[in-house]
Specification:
The complex is a heterotrimer of chains A (about 450), B (about 130) and C (about 500). Chain A is α/β, with parallel strands linked by helices. Chain A contains 13 helices and 15 strands. Chain A is about 35% helix and about 15% strand. The chains are: A alpha/beta (about 450), B alpha+beta (about 130), C alpha/beta (about 500).
Amino acid sequence: MGYIPHTEQERTEMLAAAGAKSLDDLFAHLPKETKCGPLPVPHGLGEMELSAEMRKLAAKNRSAVELACFLGAGAYDHFIPPVVGELISRGELYTAYTPYQPEISQGVLQLIYEYQTMIASLAGCDVANASLYDGGTAMVEAVQMAMRHTGRMKGVILDGALHPYYLDTVRTGIGALGVEPSVVAPKGCVSDLAALAAKAKAAGEELTCVAVGYPNFFGSIEDLGKLAEDVHAAGGLLVAVGTPWPFGLIKPPGHMGVDIVCGEGQALGVPMQYGGPYVGYIASDKALVRRMPGRLVGKTVDVQGRTCYTLTLQAREQHIRREKATSNICTNTALCAMMAHFYMSCLGQNGLKRAGELAVSKADLLRGKLKALSQTSGSAIKSVPEYAVFHEFVVETKKPAAEVLEKLLAKGILGGLDLGRFDAARKNQMLVCVTEKRSLEEIDAYVAAVATA
Amino acid sequence: MSSSVPAELKYTKEHEWVKREGALAVVGITDHAQHALGDIVFVELPKVGATVTCMKPFGTVESVKAASDLFSPLTGKVVEVNPALSKAPETVNQDCYGAGWMLKIQPSNEAEFNQLLDDKAYGALVNK
Amino acid sequence: MELIFEKSRKGAADPYFPKEDPAGTRKAADVLGKGALRTEPEDVNKRLALPELSELEVVRHVLGLCRRQVGIDSTFYPLGSCTMKYNPKINEAVSRMPQFAGMHPLQPDNTAQGTLQVLYELEAGLCHVTGMDAVTLNPMAGAHGEWTGILLIKAYHDSRGDGKRRKILVPTAAHGTNPASAAMCGYEVVAIPGTDDGLVDLKGLEAALGDDVAALMLTNPNTLGLFESDILKIQKMVHDAGGQLYYDGANLNAILGVARPGDMGFDVVHMNLHKTFSTPHGGGGPGAGPVGVKKHLAEFLPVPFVKKTGDTYAMSSDRPKSIGRVGAFYGNSNVYVRAYTYFRTYGKEGLPEVGKHAVLNAAYVLAKLQDTYTRPLKHPCMHEFILQPTKEMLAKGVRTLHIAKRLIDYGYHPPTIYFPLVVSEAMMIEPTETESKATLDKFVEAMKKIAKEALETPELVINAPHSAPVGKVDETKAAKDLDLRFCACE
């Protein structure tokens, strides 16, 4: 049955050895009220029928492979070299447990150590951890890390131009501790850095941290140097939240005085897979490392003095410190972190930078064409707000964005995100993303589809 | 193996020791504590000028297998922290009653001294 | 092995992207403006450090590291409380289909009906398996599920104006995540003692219960691998005191299809699908930690959730009393695609066979080894069991750690050791149902050989492993001389 290998004869012998008459006999000491009869679930299937069944279900999806994906907003459709999928299919890697036995886990341990190096350097920071669940939970952990460092609980100030789902996740996460963050509304699509700094100053002794998007939810990139100075002067930490994919090309937060950099690493070689599993990342200055949640891999030596790697600073973790632990996390997303490793290794710094350049140029191309369209009567585009972006930007539409997006979908295009989903005042706005993967033909098709309202 | 419990010191049941040094009190962890923790890899101490409160945590000590809170034996102001411990936390293992001291406190409540354990009471606690 | 950065060759070409800018586009540097571009600072540690290698060199690097790594696919992995069962390849194949892997989380519902159906049906299946009324797939790991479950209990008490319940009871033998998760919800954690038999001490529980207790967190079979046969009494005591009963699903594999937490009186359960439902552990994640609840807690479940109207599925956030969002999107969806595939493989007839054979395999190995090692607990074992070195072994200086490391020399992954903390020198062995009798017999033989070695040539055991890629690791150095990344200055 399924992957249970026992033959009838083996089962009989094993039961005899265990002193049981039947399989049910092994459960004789359970109260009968706790036992269940056959469950009302479908019959089991052999692999042949199951494959057909799953293909049928898959066919009900229209994925970004079939549709041209201009949808971003926290999950990105990048080109992933096939080598990433091939390498992650190695059974030694994906069927391993957490590397608690370093003698036979040097593969995963070294890969994670290398991943930590790559992520830290990409973020422009000293250190990074072995990964977290996803971008939203990584942000919760970053805020809690700031709480532990400052010894304060209140005074958590958040940029209103962060991903709405991240903001919600943080509200739940620190709300569990009775803390309510204050949220500073953006100016249009741009994070209001001056207002964030003013709020930080006003928080006085209570200030824990300011968290700002970079790029923010609307794709905006602003220099954070001045904000970092202001937040530090007010006695708090600055947290930057954003996809790290652009950091090969643009100034990373770590170069602008940001203390903790976190966000979603999915763009680095992990498929979009309907929201997960993803790979939350967190990187920081060396001085904060003992406040960092989750797992860390460190370099050391074995009895013979050979270089090797092991999980370290485990004393802070839940299996030892229980209710006093840094966090309750006992898993990272090693598998996705390894995918990010393979992606970054194969692209290298030049490849990642080149992909970034292509995305920026193509996004600029579409943005320019939509802007031109907004000048013509009869198009669906009202205007294209001006602000500095990387590969994602907001477009204002004449009628509700939902209707425009529906029209695009009819042409096989996932045209972007209806911002009215989060804020009724933005129902005539959509968020559009252009990665390096979008072709000029797809861009032209997009423009043609919105040329008439 | 019995732990060393010098007679001239006072103790807490959380395994810190206190020594009077003029108007100040020197604080560290006991031989029993350092032995139970094993190889100490990190000691986190408050800043000079901070206020510590009797029997409240003032820092943490971390070994490979455990991380423990440090409890202040007295209420007062921190006037000095041992600068050697950030670079060489193993000093606590090597000489917990000497070079491995942690804090010097200006105590603000004399009465708290009376609540501390003497060497006999503490020795009975750890060497039973 | 050399780090990938040490193999890097500056300027190595990659075959992935065109070098020419697309026709009609501006140069990225001109679009972004000079001030926005990355420039590398003096501090070597803050410079970009991605390796530059050919694809072949990367492949060889990774395969070289695979030789220094074991997984379930390489060897028997009897890691107690981790349920290291076979990860069927069809699960992987399905999850990698572009129609599942290529789905954007914010796509319109009418383009995601396949995934939504999978998630909806998996939720329903998990309800049946656990005997609960509603399930959320949002939590991304077991600990995340625990934390979510405790928040649900908090929301429930708060909704009844019962805000004085500030304590969560946790057995001393519980997983460390239990107290950590409760603390992260702002609760005070109170440890409940166990009996010498390894079960919850009812007297101790009685004493701890009161109108300040929010919940008891319990694993059943418990962390010692024993079924809490007083569970019906326990549930009554907790409920009579106004508390809720939380089920840690770490050991659900033992009773899969045979007994259900819902029927035992639990109000909340979390499941570890990376254990019970065969999704890969991935070298330390991703997991998936769905949470099931009884009716009275359903309105507090996190958002979003999948709604079915007629034959159409939709993602909804319409749950006014929800505790909110616990992650960015809808949990680890593609882990659920694997779990669903597994669920459909076994189905009605197969699921009980999983639980039964998991227990059979454990009972068999225990029967074969209980005269060679010390068996501290006399209760019948479930899917896993604890052994200790004998007094004679300990007298020779051979401890659990040594036996575990010696198993590496015999080609096995060691069992879980020194957990639970309440049993000294514990070795926790969980074979899972996917191991054949032949594999188990060989393992038993190896354990017996090691027992003999422990008495005759203890040094051989104490100094193990002898054949692993590296020997015993200096963990003190790792923690003291923290080195968490490669630095180009080295």
